Amino acid sequence: MKNMRISVAAVVMFLFVFVSVLALGQDKVTLQFKGEQGKILKYRISAGGAMKMDLNGLPMPGAKMTGDNLSGDAEFIAFLDTISVEDGTIVFDMRGTIAKIALGELLRLEGLLGDTDKSFISAKVTLNKFGKVEDLTIESSPMGEGGIGEGKGKDMMSGLGIDIGELAMGTLLPMLVSVLPPLFPENPVAVGETWSQSFSTEDVGLPFLPKITFDFKLDAVDKGVAKISYTSKGTFDASFLKSFLAMIPEIPVGENTMTIKDIKLVVPWDIKGTMDFNIEGGRIESMSSHKVFDIDGGASIDFVLPDKTKKGWQPVMKIKIEADSGAKFEGYGTREEFDALTPKEEEGEDEEDIDEL
After folding, report:
1. From start to end of the chain, where are the E strands?
2. Is residue 264 within 8 Å of residue 240, measured between CB atoms?
3. What is d(CA 99, CA 289) in angstroms, rounded to the nearest whole number?
4. Residue 45 and residue 287: Cα distance in Å, rounded?
5. How far apart, in whole angstroms, are the C-alpha atoms of residue 341 and residue 319?
6. Of 1, 117, 155, 282, which has the highest C-beta tally within 10 A?
7. How far apart are CA 252 and CA 262, in angstroms?
8. Other CB atoms within 10 A of residue 335 CB
9. Model confidence over 140-188: pLDDT tens digits?
10. CA geometry: angle at 37 spanning 34 and 40, to 5°?
């Protein structure tokens, strides 16, 4: 009788474990972006933060500057027109406009940036189903235009022969986008499971950014919405600049010459965020993140005066930045709303065509 009770208990325990394993298997979900051609997704995007700084010997020798609660925030409205959906690849025509820019919550600046009811930025974005940006072309923005393989921009520093628009939009931005990993794993995940995604600019031959890793966790699935949390923590150390400085000779500064002997820039970061992902709709419902950056920098610089005497300059900076950002899906936009954000370049082209007629 005793053995029978033990056997029954063993069978019950086996069935419990078996059913639990099945339940875990059923809880696995596939996280993939989806799209429907012709649909226009509307998002409200927010970004803001505060900075505390302590500068010694900056921005010039002998100067001191401190600041606390230097804050600002901004809101943007973004429309993503789904141009095509094919083999898990979605192409969006994205247009965005400024809703608000404020300093210290009171000084509103968006009116200074021109006609904000027109497109502030327009771009073509190609996204695969796992969230990897496969192509990005900026068609218009305050910095100019550009894309992977091409770059156009307004010459903002003609005196130095540097085209900032082309550098930022035609080179750096596409380069950074090309190394970004997909957001989601290819395999289904269960509640409680984690995955990691990493990237580095070393992948494209530039060592100026370290390997950055984001760790994700599927915390729950509630009414078809995946609740995801993510973190990233690390340190950027610009020690590679020292070898670069070794190749720079004395720099003329008026009648003096300047030699940068040493430089320090260390930036630890700590990022924590959450995301709500609509599994059936294949879209982000909302996401938010809190970021902390502690910047510790300085340099050792020698000046040689015309009488050959030397004077040193040792600037030091300590800056702490805390920033918050988020995005929220506000439903589907209308064709009228989207078309109202016609980039100004397109309007100018239309006017020229009319003049020619």
Report:
1. 40-56, 64-86, 89-103, 107-108, 121-128, 133-140, 145-147, 150-152, 194-199, 212-222, 225-237, 251-253, 256-278, 283-304, 310-313, 316-332
2. no
3. 20
4. 10
5. 38
6. 282
7. 18
8. 10
9. 766 554 443 333 334 444 444 445 555 556 566 777 777 888 999 999 9
10. 85
- Judge contact between 118 and 97, C-beta under 8 A: yes
Residues 139, 141, 143, 148, CA torsion sign = negative
Burial class, 47, CB count within 10 angstroms (exposed 0-12 / middle 13-18 / buried 19+): middle
Measured CA to CA, the distance from residue 263 to residue 313 in angstroms comes to: 12
User: In what helix (H) or strand (E) does residue 244 lie, and over which residues does it extend?
Assistant: helix 240-245
Alpha carbon distance 143, 122 (integer Å): 12
Cα-to-chain-centroid distance, residue 158: 28
Tens-digit pLDDT profile for residues 188-225: 999 999 999 998 766 666 666 678 899 999 999 999 99
Please give the C-alpha separations between residue 237 and each of 15, 173, 204, 211, in angstroms, as whole numbers: 54, 21, 19, 11
Whole-model pTM?
A: 0.78
